[in-house]
Specification:
With 446 residues, this protein is of the alpha/beta class. 38% of the residues are buried. About 3% of the residues have low confidence.
């Protein structure tokens, strides 16, 4: 049986139906997180008898009724015709229909006509019926054709399609946003109350060929590739995953980065070309050849700005450490990751001091610490997701690392010369996938 807060009860029933589970549910009042011990005890007292009854009920041999009559089906492409007295009226009708069906992100979409979808499919040589992945929580089919349909809707170009396909492969990989203890994965990203959304980081020659922004305003408006690649992935999560706000996506506030969150690392920056101590791009650090095209995804919370007012050098990393070593930013498990997004100026100043990316990771890991008494106040009930030694840390003054190791910290270079850089906290593991280019790629990018 499952113990579910009332806000998540319908979602639990829905997932049980998809999975074919005979699931008994006990519902308790929302919320649980952030409640005092007295409040939690009161909530427990309201449901304990129901839990005992359902767990000890025997002998009847009847399946539990989970209260769902409508069978959830995996979405397949549909063909339908929408008319209007003019192109403007027809476009308005298309967007009204898509909005009513919850097929959009709220913005207008490009109608995925058969002609437009066939044009998008020129971006790959893979079979349109190939199943790339099943997308949580609905386990909807992300075929090449379905990915192309959503890419058209997002306004993407055909030559963006290989990146979008690789990103879908990454976010649906069982290791994405998981750790040795938890299998949070895409289902967690889709249904959590936290403002989490995939951050896509593109490396390799393809980022320049597609014009994926990595310099001034790289997270800002006006960059077609960044905007539409990230948006296409979000629409696939919505439509194949059947994830809808206030239905089964329970984000408390959410974030604007959910619409699109895509960037390239600026591999042309001088720190990567240095003869003395060249930095490694993110994909090379993660084990890929320099010439590979790779997309790395992280289940990210909204980025946080940090800045320098007088120092430009390794000292700026003290701002990073101070920012993340707080109860508002600390990860509740040491398996979570961060990405430090250094602007052009900060990256150069740190490199000029002789530091590498590995040095940055080591420094942040070593200095991002908290007294145990303060650390445990944030999530005192989640000791199961912490290293075993923490259970024996009895002295509240003992200093503990907030990360499992330097490997939990990623560093990229993106942005122009200025005083502002960013950090983004990720839920559990980041994951990388190589971007498979079609044989006719050279013709496609001409």
């Amino acid at each position: 049986m499952a113990i579910i807060t009332d806000r998540f009860a319908e979602g639990a029933k829905w997932v049980a139906k998809i999975e074919g589970l005979d699931l008994s549910i006990t519902v308790i009042p929302y919320p649980v997180a952030g409640q005092s011990q007295e409040q939690l005890a009161k909530k427990a007292s309201t449901c304990i008898n129901d839990i005992i009854q359902k767990l000890t009920k025997t002998g009847e041999g009847k399946k539990t009724e989970i209260g769902i009559t409508k069978i959830v089906t995996k979405p397949e492409p549909l063909s339908f015709r929408i008319r209007g007295k003019s192109n403007t009226e027809a476009l308005k009708a298309v967007n009204s229909r898509f909005y009513e069906e919850k097929w959009t992100d709220g913005f207008p979409i490009v109608p995925p006509t058969e002609e437009a979808v066939q044009l998008m499919l020129r971006g790959t040589d893979r079979d349109p019926d190939e199943l790339v992945a099943e997308v949580a929580p609905a386990k909807g089919k992300a075929t090449i054709r379905n990915i192309a349909i959503n890419s058209v809707m997002a306004g993407a170009q055909p030559n963006y399609l290989p990146v979008i396909i690789a990103a879908v492969e990454a976010i649906t990989d069982p290791m994405f946003a998981s750790d040795p203890i938890s299998s949070w994965g895409l289902a967690g990203v889709q249904s959590t109350t936290a403002p989490v959304s995939p951050l896509l980081i593109v490396n390799g020659p393809i980022s320049k060929e597609l014009g994926i922004a990595s310099r001034r305003g790289c997270f800002s408006r006006g960059h077609q590739a960044n905007a539409t690649i990230g948006r296409a992935v979000r629409l696939i999560m919505t439509n194949a995953g059947m994830s809808h706000v206030e239905v089964n996506d329970m984000k408390c506030q959410g974030g604007s980065h959910e619409f699109t969150f895509c960037v390239a690392e600026n591999e042309d920056h001088p720190v990567f070309q240095s003869q003395q101590n060249p930095w490694k791009p993110l994909h090379v650090q993660r084990g890929y050849p320099q010439t590979s095209n790779v997309v790395t995804v992280m289940a990210s919370l909204p980025p946080v700005n940090f800045e320098d007012t007088k120092d430009c050098g390794p000292e700026i990393l003290n701002c990073v450490v101070d920012t993340i070593s707080t109860r508002g930013q600390e990860p509740f498990t040491m398996y979570w990751e961060y990405v430090i997004i250094l602007n052009s100026n900060h990256a150069q100043c740190i490199a000029d001091a002789g530091w590498s990316k590995e040095d940055i990771r080591e420094f942040v890991y070593a200095n991002a610490v908290m007294p145990w008494g303060k650390y445990k106040q944030q999530y005192p009930g989640l000791m199961a997701v912490q290293p075993s030694w923490i259970k024996h840390t009895l002295d509240d003054s003992t200093t503990v690392h907030i990360f499992g190791g330097p490997e939990n910290i990623n560093v990229i270079v993106a942005g122009s010369d200025c005083m502002y850089s960013q950090i983004a906290r990720g839920n559990f593991n980041t994951l990388s996938k190589e971007i498979r280019l079609p044989k006719h790629w050279r013709e496609l990018v001409k």
